[in-house]
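Chain A, query sequence.
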Amino acid sequence: GGRRQQEETGGGEKEVVSKNKRYRKDKPWDHEGIDHWKIEPFEKGDMKAPLLEESSFATLFPKYREAYLKEVWPLVTKELNKSGLACELNLIEGSMSVKTTRKAWDPYAILKARDLIKLLSRSVPVQQALKIMADDVHCDIIKISGYVRNKDRFVKRRQRLLGPNGSTLKALELLTKCYILVQGNTVSCMGTFTGLKQARNVIVDCMRNIHPIYNIKTLMIKRELAKDEELKGENWDRFLPKFKKRNVKAKKPKNKVEKKEYTPFPPPQAPSKIDQQLESGEYFLSSKEKKQKQQGERSEGRKAEKEERDKDRAASFVPPKEKAR
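Chain A, predicted structure.
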């Protein structure tokens, strides 16, 4: 049930083989020392017959890149001709296109050319962009505009990625061994697959409000740990820093207005000046009596003020109390 025994081999022992491995044969070309990650070079002449179908890719570019692309296009054409590819710059539509020809000897070169025109449209200089044609260089164009709605906040976070005088970006380039260019709503990266993955994580985290300095610190520690032969196969979690989230509480207003109980009735009307005069009986006084009353109030006020002043003056002549001997 599930297992089948083979015929007895020479020594009288029965070798038990799993049912699903019954028809497997040895692979002499697949041995322990083989490196499956190694990219084998593809030379001219490795492809026996020309491509049967034409493949093409096109991309649009912004208006401000037109003058530069016009200037460097002969260099791009020359470089793509080496791989047997044709390219076209359409200034009316504002597009660049690449396609395979009968002379193409590398079937993957058209995908590299597609990345090349993408990078050129995202303001990468031509000398840097042409490096993408190498087998060990790859690219990633990261769209950063969708992470933040607020325009000011987006600009601040993008600036945070660059750092003062571009120092944060330079540190990220050195750690990931990638070329990184921040342009408008995108970030263009060029390098190895490992480096591109690390760079993407840092850039996306920065747009999600995690400061790049934390990720840079982690990358620096990982780089040092990778040098140690003993720690290569171990878990590095105990060495990596753990950053706590700090929830900064909003400042409370100083003068907090207390909410009054809700009543459906309006507040009572404040008494007018005439109402106050009627209440005090002043309304019925003649103009002469009113004047006399006002003068009396003023004289009383002056009298109280004079008493206050005299008290203050007298306080300076009061002798201090002497300590008992």
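The radius of gyration is 42 Å. Confidence is low (pLDDT under 50) at residues 1-11.
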